[in-house]
Amino acid sequence: MGLVRIYSEQEVGKILKESEGVGLPNEGGQGHSEGLHEIVAVGRGRESTSVAGLEDRALTERKSTVGAFDGSQIKAVTFALNTQAGQNTLAFLNAKAVWYVFTKINVSGQGFKMKLTQVADMPKIGPATAPVTSDKIAQFVCMKLMANDGALHIRTAYPVWDQAPLPQPTCEIVYRGDGGKMNQELPV
């Protein structure tokens, strides 16, 4: 079974905290779920961003849409991991050949608050229109999940708001070696 099991909010909070700012051996990048994707951090010593930080990130990274949980990250990630789609996604991580899994899990109807920053006109170069941030209810949780010596590492976890109709939950599996060969848009 390995990583496939039911997770408590306390466990998920600990995993997010232990993943924040930490990379795994032999691969680049660091965990950033809290610092970039949570506006109001719930729990001791958790990292967070601000609405101004979210808007600045949209402009700096040239993204037309960015989102962050509004005090609901631990609850939303726990819910997503414990769904059938989340458990199916975690099953892929049990294979030693899998480097990481990126998944998009439907959490609509659960009431997880988020902030959504949108930039109406974001050209590749040049000035963009002013970002607008609004309150939304997350419809999906997107996560990059990795295994680290049998433990779960959450590289990132962020909310997504889409307009209806909502797509089915999916995941991408990226394998070690072979230049990061992957299976894309697998239903979970």
Description:
- The protein has 188 residues and is α+β, with helices and mostly antiparallel strands.
- The strands form two sheets. The protein has a five-stranded antiparallel sheet.
- A hairpin with a 2-residue loop joins β5 and β6.
- The protein is globular and about 45 Å long.
- The two termini are 17 Å apart.
Number of strands: 8
Helix content: 10-25%
Strand order of the largest sheet: 6-5-2-7-8
N-to-C SSE string, H for helix and E for strand: HHHEHHEEEEEEE
Backbone structural class: alpha+beta
Strand content: 25-35%
- What is the 3D shape? globular
CA-atom Rg in angstroms: 16 Å
**Major sheet size, sense and barrel closure:** 5 strands, antiparallel
Compute the average pLDDT: 86
Amino-to-carboxy terminus distance:
17 Å
When the domains are counted, the total is 1
Q: Outline the low-pLDDT stretches.
A: none
Enumerate how many helices there are, as a single number. Answer: 5
